[in-house]
Design goal:
Elements: H1 2-45, E1 53-57, E2 60-64, H2 80-89, H3 94-116, H4 136-161, H5 165-171, H6 178-182, H7 188-212, H8 218-238, H9 241-251, H10 253-261, H11 269-286, H12 294-315, H13 317-325, H14 329-340, H15 345-367, H16 373-395, H17 397-404
Antiparallel strand pairs: 1-2
Length: 417
Amino acid sequence: MKMRSVLIVVLLNMAVLCAGFYFFHWMAADELATRTVLIKEQLVRGENPNATKHVASSGKDAVVYVTNQFNWSQVESSDYRTYIGNLRAIACPESTIKDIIVTDVMKLYAQKRGQASVNGREFRYWETDEKRKLKQLQIEEREKTLAQIDKELPGVLRELLGINYEKELDKYFIDTNEDDRRLAFLSDDKRSAASAVRDQLESARERILSATGGHPTAGDLERLQRLQQDADARLTQLLTPDEKFQFELSTSLTADTLRKNLVGFNPTEAEFREIYQRQKAIDAAFAYQDLSDPSVRAEKEAAEKRMEDELHSAFGQYRMADYQAVKNPEYRDVIAFSERFDLPDSVAQSLVSMRSIAQQQRDQLLANNNLAQDQKAQALRAIQAETEKTLRQTLGDKVYTVYSQSAGGWVHELGTN
């Protein structure tokens, strides 16, 4: 009995507490709603919403005390620049700002895509599907709209956040943390700051180049050069000389281009640095010049020839032969394919030789004026069939099928004239 009395008292106390909680919660919510309106008005006027303010009322000064209560409507805005500024004003982390704005912008453009994909007909459950399909004119208009969205969306995100749309989109499908791997030699703070400088430079460059339609004027080139110099100066302040050099080796366009163009050369670290320093000097010298000018092109070709002569002295005859070999994009394709399937080096060399021999035979056959067209066609098909047979024997059916659809696309051209 005593236990039951205690339990009743506890339940009554809990009821009183709950009633009090809901009363004060209602009062606080009402106060917060009123305060939110005041704060939004202050933000619009450019005033500090956290300052104590005197309000005139009935001829007397009343003091409104602002608490630490917060509502999202205090910072949210239909104007993205204002929205971002408000988020930064409350010390919202940049990564969080980026996530918020990217998500919001993507949602907005998803709605635009959706609007372009429907014909506007009211849904009627008894109607069959063809009634709601787009008419041909609507399909054509949709394609124009989607093309405009695809062109506009990257620019919007660059303008608002200074980010690369493709890189950000990749993170929603597979986050490879590429920067973390490439820049692992830097501390977290330096990595973040240096990456921001790089992204801002890329964003500004893309904005200028997209506005020129790929044909920058002399003034545009000067602006691009100043942007590059400013970014370089900021990196010099952020990083030590060794860190800055490694940052360039890891992220620059020159280094990325070399990693693509040196496939099959297998450079050592020292060789890569040797090539990079020379190529960087050429790229820097001609990056902001008009390459459509024949004299500029000739000057660049002369600089590249001097670079090859210097590399020949540094690498020697045999290593330079390897360097010259990878200038052939077809050779690089074969090497990349062989690497993908972990094929021996000898197989890669065989693929290159077979292609060379087959194409020589085809060229000789086409140049033979003593053969009729039907004879040439039959002989070309024979060359293609024999080449396919040899490749299947070398690679196996499974690997050959993949090869013929990628790096080995040339095989299908052997039988045509």
